[in-house]
Design goal:
single chain; 463 residues; mainly alpha; Growth Hormone, Chain: A; 16 helices; 2 strands; 75% helix; 1% strand; globular
Length: 463
Amino acid sequence: MTALAARPAFTPPVAEAAVPTSVVLRYGVGQLGAQVFRDTPAVLLPLFMTTMLGIPAWMSGFVVLIPKLWLIACDPLTGAWSDRIKDRYGRTPFLLVGAVLTSLAFVALFNLTATGSPLLSAMLTCFIFFVGSTAFSAFSVPYLAVASGLSRDPHQRTRIMVFRMVFASFGVLAGVGSAQPLVYAFGGGARGWLLMSLILGALCLVTMLATAIGMMRVPLIRDEAQPTGLLRQLGAIGGNRPYLVLLSTCLIQNVAQACGYTVIGFIFLYALKAIWLVPLFIIAMTGVGIVTQPVWLTISRRLGKERAFVLASLVWGVVTASWWFIHPSTDVLMTLPGGLRLGTQDVLVMVRGMLIGLTNGAFIMLGYSMLTDTIDLERRRHGIANEGVFSGLFSAFEKLSFAVGPVIAGLVMSAFGFASSTGGAAAQSVRAVTGIVMLYSWIPAGLMAVSLIVFTRYRLPQD
């Protein structure tokens, strides 16, 4: 008799004792480095390719897309493989190898790709990013799967994701907030990119290894049945409707975020003409995101995860649409300690940053928490969660979306006349800047609205 034929009766979610905070911290810290690798190339690689390597904007989008397409197959396969060995070795081998190779690839991206030929540089960047993305898959898929095996209690899993999002926020602060200023602080040019990549690459290595080593002896939930063949595992995904709806919703939302991530450096450089404002903006955004994560845990308990998710997504969409109205500051509204002057537009940018921090971390955290709920539903239905495969496909679609975003951005920027360059940023036309602002405002806000329409189909059985 097969494992599916002998499946146990459906059981509702159960409450369990709290997962020790030390375990949650050891798990969460790995997301700091993972976030640096996920976000920094998404934000800076298009800027690096178009201003340092002379790669056209449209081509830079496809440089990012091609490795991500491979992950559609790589991530689920990695998850299935980790499912098969977890009872003997745990998921540690994947986490260790992934941590080391991901960090090395991050450094190589910004230092081994200049050839003098834009086409050759594009091909070399694509290859290194392919290798790095595969290594990141070895870490990120088993890492995400671990969260579903730490507790059967849905509220405990939300708590785990809250800690994970706190470290993710620090990762955004380090990767998005400090990377570009580090490049300029070290004098720009090849030397600036080298030192930035070495610092952030080391951060990736230390934090991801901390999780890989720290989770070695942590017991995870054991399935009642043994893993079946890959095709049957993938078939289980097709029978989990809440998972499919959540997968589609998050795919669209991630594309929306990716469009903005791709041009955030361009926004401060060309639309606001205030590159110095990036660290303050990121600090404001991540600071509010970190402080308010426990608040969203409380809101999700009172309103339910689904309603809290919709609330955060709606506010994010409205704030994002408001970026359409930005322009460089022409006045001085206040002077900060140290003599730093902020104009009205600068202050409004900071306010938007805090609102984005308030909501962005919330709907991402709740999306991951609902993912663990859909995986737990599979365990309660069939006695086996296949969390590696479910997490792998979810991770693949997330990475794909962060590749589709740069493609959309590259096509829009090229259509609006963005001019690529080598050796530094070139002046852009008003029309080119308009395209950049559109990618940071109306396009992601519209995609967010579409995602919420899809999410209306989400229903999670409780009995």
